[in-house]
Amino acid sequence: MPDISTIGAVLGSLKTATDIAKFIRESDVSIERAELKLKVADLVSALADVKMELVELQDTFASKEKRIRELEEAFQAKDSLVRRYDAYYRADSEGKPVGVPFCLRCWENDHRQRQLVHDAKEYRIRICTNCGHRYEGRLAGDIQPTNPD
Ligand SMILES: [Zn+2]
After folding, report:
1. How far is the CA of 128 from the centre of ligand 1 (A)?
2. What is the whole-number distance in angstroms between the Cα of residue 87 and the centre of ligand 1?
3. What global pTM score does this model have?
4. Residues 111-129 pLDDT 10s
């Protein structure tokens, strides 16, 4: 994936293109036609590099924007999740954990809400479908509302 150094590459390619254009502008009228064609070919090549590098940067910016949106959503949801034992839960109106468990590891490491599911073979084990982490069911079980009304 391109990173901040790609910007340096774009600037380098632009400098190359500018230098070639300056050389052509400042050349004596007697510049050989063959040499001129060669320089123009170099110029086109340098501009093609710039274009390619900018496309890479465009992709990078798009994926970074997506990740920022995810983090913003996680940040807004931050106070709504509360921990009990080995999992996180949504909070009820009194701030107590309730409902389905979310993966502690995914939430704490990546700020992603991922529900835990029962392991197909061992029912007492809860498993995260995202990171594969396994939890002891009684430490990461569903929590029924205390006062259902
Ligand atoms: Zn997980």
Report:
1. 5
2. 10
3. 0.56
4. 888 999 999 899 899 999 9
